[in-house]
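Lab notes, practical 5.
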Amino acid sequence: MNDSIKSTRGFSLIEILIAIVILSISLLGLAALMVTTTQNNSFGAHMSEATTFAQDMLERLRVSPWEKVVSGKDPLPIAGSTGINYDRNWVVSPNPISPNDTLRTVTITVKWNDKTDHSISVLSAIYK
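Output from the prediction step:
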């Protein structure tokens, strides 16, 4: 009779403390994972926005008159929807394999800083 009463009494204090320690360690690991995931999502958003700004300039250059397809830089930083400012510049150079300047190489670089300096470059060619 004494054994049946002992088995229905529940958990000991040491068992509860061990379970709380294991749960705490698991939750701390999960919290660190959440911070990393949030940072990676933020970087992905900035990268997508910078790529969109580069693509936008490439499309502008493609529809510009041929004599206006020249190197340049935005006079002011571009304010992104994520709260980051982006600096964009583009370098247009004649393509050496193109006779009579009918093909130009365009490199568009977009730079930003979100606690660290980042940049993305898009390389393309424009045909007259």
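Observations recorded by the TA: The CA atoms of residues 2 and 116 lie 67 Å apart. The chain has a mean pLDDT of 90.
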